[in-house]
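Protein data:
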Amino acid sequence: MSDTVAHVTSLADDTTWFDDHPTLRDRAINEILLYGTGLGEGVSSHPAQRAWRERQHLMPRQGAPISEREAVDRRWRDAWARWADTVVGEF
């Protein structure tokens, strides 16, 4: 559960749409919960969920080059940005 909370908190800290668009925020939280609990592996944010897992596995690793950590973090942010762009078009 702490990973799920960390994911939501990171989105709130690292994206503007999370605060600016309540509908996107609610949908993102729902998808994080569904994916994180295993109840929704096929959520539309699946690429962002996978990128988060990759990010979480890399970050605690001692000696991981900063460029590698930045690249993983960028992939996670980019995946969520693509998701938000796609989903906002549905409204």
